[in-house]
Amino acid sequence: QVQLVESGGGSVQAGGSLRLSCTASGYPGSTSYMGWFRQAPANEREGVAAIDNGSRTNYVDSVKGRFTISQDNAKSTLYLQMNSLKPEDTAMYYCAARPPGSYCRGRYCLYSAMYNFWGQGTQVTVSS
Question: What is the dihedral of CA 81, 40, 12, 80, to 10 degrees?
């Protein structure tokens, strides 16, 4: 059974940093088929960062230059380094995995419909 477990969330002041981790178990695919999403209470789920089938990174425009997605496939772990955090980054952050070997490219990797495995989320709160 596939399980994705996020950790590393918390409360920080604007300008601070957090590093999120997501560890997968029972998932036969590479961490190159995973990504990060977020959802604030009044908003739709939004793709934040993802790795495509060629191990290329993709980001939503609002986090470019501030967030970095990385992977350690040997540890079945996906990371999201978040720097220069802003109050508008406040959300529940989820990691997700696509069907093993599935294809996506560029910004299409940020569509939630591409993913079929989801973690329970970790809360990130950024205050002014």
Answer: -10
